[in-house]
Amino acid sequence: MKKTLKLSVLVIAFFASFNLFAIESNPTDPVKKENRTNAKNIFGERNDKVYVVLDNPELNTVYIEVRDAIDRLVYKETFKNQDAIKKAFDFTKAYTGLYHITVYNGNNTFYKSIEI
Asked: What CATH class has 27-115?
């Protein structure tokens, strides 16, 4: 009986975690999940800090968002009519886990993951 209960709890936990990772962001979000590019040249990292530097000569609207491992929105900012985007993220006091930074400039989507 105990073995069956433990197995049932394990199976339920597995499917619950699988469903959490399958959640997509709101379809109306400007940050799109397809056509992502992992561009190391716009990201810098040092001591649990991530820096974003993006040239934007076309003055596109730029969206930056940070999500945690289960796709919860932690941070979001929109930049309009700026020719250069510079942003620093300090994860030194963040909860342990995996975070995803996504930058969308209208033409490309760049992302970086960081584990704390």
From this structure: mainly beta
Which residues make beta-bridge pairs with 67? 73, 100
- Single out the residue of 49, 35, 36 nearest to residue 110, CA to CA: 36
Residues of the chain with pLDDT under 70: 1-40
How far apart are the C-alpha atoms of 102 and 42, rounded to whole Å?
11
**Beta strands across the sheet bearing 36-37:** 36-37, 109-115, 98-104, 62-68, 73-79
Cα–Cα distance for residue pair 35/32, rounded to 1 Å: 8
pTM of the model: 0.66
Task: Let me know: does 53 contact 86? Beta carbons within 8 Å.
Answer: yes
List the domain boundaries for the chain: 27-115
The side-by-side arrangement of strands in the sheet containing 84-90 is 43-46, 49-55, 84-90
* Calculated CA dihedral for residues 113, 114, 115, 116, nearest 10 degrees: -150
Nearest by Cα to 51 from 13, 84, 22 = 84
Tokens, residue 20: 């959490």
